[in-house]
Amino acid sequence: MLQNNFGAVIVAAGSSRRMGASQSKVLMNLAGRPVLSYSLDALCACPLIARLAVVCRDEDREKIEKIAAASPKQVELIAGGPERQDSVLNGIHVLEDCDYLLIHDGARPLVTSNLVQAVCEDALQYGASAAAVRVKDTCKLVDEEGFVLETPPREKLMSVQTPQAFERALYLYAAERAASSGRTFTDDCQLVEAAGGRVHLVQGDYKNLKITTPEDLLSAEAFLAGEKKMRIGSGYDVHRLTEGRALILGGVKIPFEKGLLGHSDADVLAHAVADALLGAAALGDIGKLFPDTEERYRGADSLLLLSEVCRRVRESGHEIKNIDATVMAQRPKLAPYILQMREKLAETCGITTEQISVKATTEEGMGFTGSGEGMSASAVCLLS
User: Which residue ranges does the record assign to the 2-C-methyl-D-erythritol 2,4-cyclodiphosphate synthase domain (predicted)?
Assistant: First the structure.
């Protein structure tokens, strides 16, 4: 078991009947991205979540695999069941090494990493937790014919959302109780409550809506348009060439008689990208995060450092939209390695290769790089 670590189940196996569309709602376009990708980003940004499972329909699997491939954490895909309760259990079974579970609807794309973190921490304290908001309207309990039976006091009513998180043993006990009695539930809190468990609620977010109808998709787009703030960052790095070192650029080892000199592997391209991301998020620079006075960073793989940078950028609430980088080097020819650099950097940053550009240029024999003494790289990025 991974002590106090969560396995996250994203439920994405619904039929989407109320959307009136031929494709699953988690695959629909929301501000230029699939709905599901937003939830994956938010859950991956939570350090307590170790692994994820997406429960989906067989006909959606290929498309969801492509979305999940951009995630920085391990994502398993598993087939859904006849009921939501069955789908969740299918996902749980592939996360058997996690002692806590977090369950989230793939159709709630506006969940934040802060809310995910809050629910996880609450579950560690109470054993069961869910996000919820107070209802704004007066609610009525009605009979089958539509007549009012009761008006519950509004101040005691909460609208429950996902994510919801549970101690694994508690959830499986509740699921066994439900199976033995033949009962099914559409809400995981209700499942646990029916087995005698107590669920603690934390403050949710009114923007954390569930996309069920076309109007919900329009509301989500409006929220994103109103909240989106763009941040631009720039980065620059330079290293001297020397014999006896490997030449590594963008995580790619390039055959050459010299390599770049530095405390880490001196990947000048990865360093420039990292500084651009940190600058856009106002998080300092790589010299501050990974000082060359610390022995643990000697010879470090710069892609691992870049991965940590991306984690911090996402934890600060930012999303990487695109990166544009240029390497300045007189020799060797870098064109044959450009695509591989893009792929390595994209994988590390948790984005697609279409979101990152890498270019190479000489400086016509002029200056530090033109004389072959070293190489430099610059990068700009856009965060939202």
Answer: 230-383
Cβ atoms 151, 139 nearer than 8 A: yes
Residue 19: predicted pLDDT: 63
- Report in angstroms the alpha-carbon separations of 140 from 135, 156, 157, 210: 12, 13, 11, 22
Task: Tell whether residue 292 is among the known ligand binding residues.
Answer: yes
How confident is the model at residue 2, as a pLDDT?
A: 45
Exposed / middle / buried, residue 303 (Cβ in 10 Å: 0-12, 13-18, 19+): buried
Residue type, 256: F
Which pTM value belongs to this model?
0.60
368 is in an annotated binding site: yes
Tell me whether residue 362 is annotated as binding.
yes
256 is in an annotated binding site: no
At 1 the pLDDT is 41
62 known ligand binder: no
Q: Is 291 annotated as a binding residue?
A: yes
Residue 238 annotated in ligand binding: yes
Residue 365 confidence (pLDDT) = 85
Distance CA(147)–CA(152), nearest Å, equals: 15
The reply, when asked if residue 287 is annotated as ligand binding, is: yes
User: Does 361 count as an annotated binding residue?
Assistant: yes
Residues of the chain short of pLDDT 50, as ranges, are 1-2
237 annotated binding-site participant: yes
Report residue 379 CA to chain centroid gap. 23
Consult the annotation and say whether 91 binds a ligand: no
